[in-house]
Design a protein that fits this description.
It is a single chain. The chain has about 270 residues and is mainly α. The protein is built from eleven helices and no strands. The chain is globular. The model has no long low-confidence stretch (mean pLDDT about 85).
């Protein structure tokens, strides 16, 4: 049932409609977040050996998680017909601890395969260079080419694809967490995994549409990319809402079935004397 209602084209149309309706407010929010992030990076300086640099680096990460979750909630509200409100940022503060843990867990899950693939690639590079003749540039180039096209290169690419697959399966974790206050961090991860199950084909198609859309926006210079980024963000929210809406009939049917009384056992007729 879920896959029938999931529509990348519908998500694009809704994303464009919501962008047109709320463009000024969303643009102001995006620009405001960019300015705050820029100020924090300036306060941190450029000396990576200083305590100040790493302190403001952590502050920047925490702010990005808070801003991202707040923007997700604002776009969910906009999709539901509400006007964007700055008070949403304050509403997300009590959930900040859980949001940090959620982003940390998703990051570890998605980056671990890439780290394994990188280690395998480096190991293959080391073994290839160990027998290479550095005085011969042609042989060195051939060795590097063989390394990337060999077993270690192929395995590294496969692990990168696994990381991409996991990222797509977990793309709704923050949306689910800010949308449903009853969900824990682990529940949000499980929720995203469940929502993307059976829908990966259309989700990949929607992501490809967003990539093409943002390439067009980049070609159209700065104003274009800002517009397409807002459309893409609303597209993700719309995909989430499409899947959530398609699950509601199933939940209702299960509730009705649970409320229906069990058939009673027929009474045994009295035996004749």
């Amino acid at each position: 049932m879920k896959a029938q209602l999931l529509s990348p084209n519908g998500a694009l149309k809704t994303g464009w409609a919501l962008t047109r309706k709320h463009f000024i407010v969303m643009l102001g929010l995006f620009l405001g977040i960019m300015v705050v992030s820029w100020i924090v990076s300036l306060l941190g300086g450029s000396d990576i050996t200083s305590f100040r640099y790493w302190f403001f680096y952590i502050v920047s990460l925490v702010l990005s998680i808070w801003f991202g979750a707040s923007m997700n909630k604002i776009m969910l509200n906009a999709h539901a017909g509400e006007e964007p409100s700055f008070s949403t940022f304050g509403q997300m503060l009590p959930k900040l601890g859980g949001l940090i843990g959620l982003n940390l867990m998703v990051g570890i899950i998605c980056l671990l395969p890439m780290l394994v693939g990188f280690v395998i690639l480096v190991a293959g590079l080391g073994s290839s260079l160990a027998v290479a003749d550095f005085s011969n540039p042609y042989e060195l180039g051939y060795t590097l080419g063989m390394m990337f096209s060999g077993v270690s290169g192929i395995v590294s690419i496969l692990f990168s694809l696994v990381a991409l697959y996991l990222a797509l399966r977990l793309m709704f974790t923050v949306l689910a967490y800010v949308d449903d206050s009853s969900l824990s961090v682990f529940d949000a991860i499980q929720r995203s995994w469940s929502m993307t199950h059976g829908n990966m084909g259309k989700i990949i198609l929607a992501v490809l549409m967003m990539i093409v859309l943002n390439i067009i926006g980049f070609i159209a210079l700065i104003v274009g990319i800002v517009v397409t980024l807002i459309i893409s963000a609303f597209m993700i929210v719309t995909l989430y809402e499409q899947i959530k809406a398609s699950e509601q009939p199933t939940v209702a049917d299960e509730a009705a079935a649970a409320a229906e009384p069990a058939p009673s056992e027929p009474e045994n007729p009295a035996q004749p004397q």
